[in-house]
Amino acid sequence: MLKTSKLSEHIQQYSVNFSAPSELSPLITEASQATYVLLGEASHGTSEFYTLRADITKQLIQEHHYTFIAVEGDWPACYEVNRYIKGMASEYSSAEDVLRKTFTRWPSWMWANHEMVDLIDWLYTYNQTQTKKVGFYGLDVYSLWESMDAIVNYLGKIKSPDLEKALRAIECFNPYQRQPEKYGLSAAFYGENCVSEIMELLETIQENKRFDYDDLESVLNMNINALVAKNAEHYYHTMITNDSESWNIRDRHMVEVLHCIGNFHGKTAKAIVWEHNTHIGDARATDMANEGMVNVGQLTREKYGQTNVYAIGFGTYQGTVIATTKWGTTPEVMRVPKGVDGSFEEALHHAGASNKYLLFTEENRDYFRSMIGHRAIGVVYHPDFEHHGNYVPSRLSDRYDAFIHVDETTALSLLS
């Protein structure tokens, strides 16, 4: 393992300090050569990660013609944002209104925050000047019941004879009271599952010729919701007995949805993906590989080729963050302690207490290939014990194509 003092020397040599988003232009120009730009974050509750990603996103859209944003969020909720920014959702009075009303599943703060309001406002205004409007979509797999509700509502709206199949599928899940852990336990240990109902519904929707093909976005919505229902059933079925495989189901699902959206937008489609570092940074460059785990960063590189995917990691040395100490509880502002000795964060800070970015190139990549601990904060966080499990051993220049370091960060500003 490379000593952090030597690593800091390499960081000083190859990093570029920045004090404003406009100074990231060289990084953005480099990233724009790829079809898929993956923007990470070291936590789900840091303001600067959101605002910097938003600034990068705006530049990619305005100057490099990126066509959609895909995030680590539920498809049904994100689709409402998509409708809103395209002027298709008059029931919402503002960006804050759509975020507050649609992102209700815990952890809602990931998307229902003031930083996202600013971006959604910008997208709404930008789209008013465009013939082909920028989209906003969710890649995640959790929304089993919400996606099935959306399917039923659409089939009812178009008076489809297939509505009965959708209702049968929902009826199968009714005994579990919309609690995934209840369904997972029943499916994993008692053999009581809804696989056949979900598969029948998916096949019906994929073969359906009765959809309104004058409204292709609604057809996309229907197809993705069916895909979510299938993969969510598989995910919840598996999560009780195999954490690694359930992780793989989730990330494979996200890549499958990303591919479907890309196909919908056509040959000129270019995507910006917002997800945690643990999803967008190539799993093969971490200890995840030892556990047989894959992720979006690895799968997209394998699917589309290394040069068509550009992954940017984000990190911080210290500050504050929004998180909780227990799943499902009220979020709070927590301190982020200084990066532990021997970590990538500590080396970045030691190289100078400033915001900086690194481009990993053929010239310098070998200097950043040694395995080193790299901080990852989830929605559940215990700052006093983070050295026990919040540092992912990583080969940084293999995990990412570039890295943005914010030396001291602040917590997200939540919608009240």
Automatic annotation (TrEMBL):
In terms of domain of life, where is this protein from? Bacteria
Checking Pfam families in the record gives: Erythro_esteras
Q: Which CDD domains match?
A: Ere-like
**Which Gene3D superfamilies is this protein grouped with?**
EreA-like (biosynthetic domain), EreA-like, domain 2
Residues annotated as signal peptide: none
Tell me which InterPro entries the record gives.
Emycin_Estase, Hydrolase/PRTase-associated, UCP036794_erythomycin
Q: What is this protein called?
A: Erythromycin esterase family protein
> What's the source species for this entry?
Halalkalibacter kiskunsagensis
